[in-house]
Amino acid sequence: MTDQGQPAWRAKQVMDWLYLKRVDSFEEMSNLPKTLRNQLADSFELHPLKVITIQKSQDGTVKFLFGLTDGHAIETVIMRHQYGISVCVTTQVGCRIGCTFCASTLGGLKRNLTAGEIVAQVVMAQKHLDSTNERVRSVVVMGSGEPFENYDATMHFIRIINDSSGLHIGQRHITVSTSGVVPNIYRFADENWQVGLAISLHAPNQDLRSSLMPINRRYPLAELLDACWYYLEKTGRRLTFEYALIGGKNDQDEHAHELGKLLQGMNCLVNLIPVNYVPERNYTRTPRKQIFKFKRILESYQVNTTIRREHGHDIDAACGQLRAKHSQLIQT
Fold this sequence. Notes:
- The protein is 36% helix and 20% strand.
- By secondary structure, the chain is an alpha/beta fold.
- Helix 3 (115-130) packs parallel to helix 4, helix 5 packs parallel to helix 8 and helix 9 (253-263) runs parallel beside helix 10.
- The longest helix is centred in the middle third of the chain and has 16 residues, at 115-130.
- Its EC number is 2.1.1.192.
- Its main location: cytoplasm.
- Belongs to the radical SAM superfamily. RlmN family.
């Protein structure tokens, strides 16, 4: 505002219109001078996302496919939990990490999202919830893409949604997930925030993890664990390790014992995730009985373990699935 020759307090007015009143145009910002409203409309895109598709699950999960101004598409998911409503946001169009069990990486990375495009996902989700007087309580940065390869925009996004003049979502209600970009785990620890960190682990040893997650060849498991220990010592916060169980690949008893020994003594939670079926991959789900056995083995090493509750199993709720279908339709 000051750069535009306006008093600084105009910024608070704009924030109020954007994040509290959630208006659809600059013209509706009635306490701003007409000339300023016109200037804002000429300079900025208020709605960088357009709804292409909305899918609704029987369990209350809502998945959006949003179109961007350059023709690309991204996904955002609303999930309902006992503790409230969370939104899962995307930070990149596609992904270059190459995890073999994930649909997001199909087609590779197209580009990073701007901070505004990430924020807009939460705003659009909240506007969808306004009709039922519900509120976004938490945000997980676990959608398509690798947040720590779009680090600066992701951090800017967190500052905006956490700001008391923005969406005012508490830091403890925000979690960022990374596949293991080690240098930025150190940077994130040094942010001195209360934002949660989740590590996509998915294997208990170097060779297996490298076969599932090519990023492990660049940042080996030992280096990743060193960064995790640094985070724990720096922040005092508990880490979450995400572990996708893939039938016959990483879900056997010996894998559970190896993982238990690896994480024993660490202030962490292991979140077991039955792998989602992706047509392009030939992976099968771990039998229910083996999932619970895997959990019991980890707990025998005093490693806190949960099994992720599935959301939107009757729709394309896994990262990248809806976007992949949309891309195929466009190509055909």
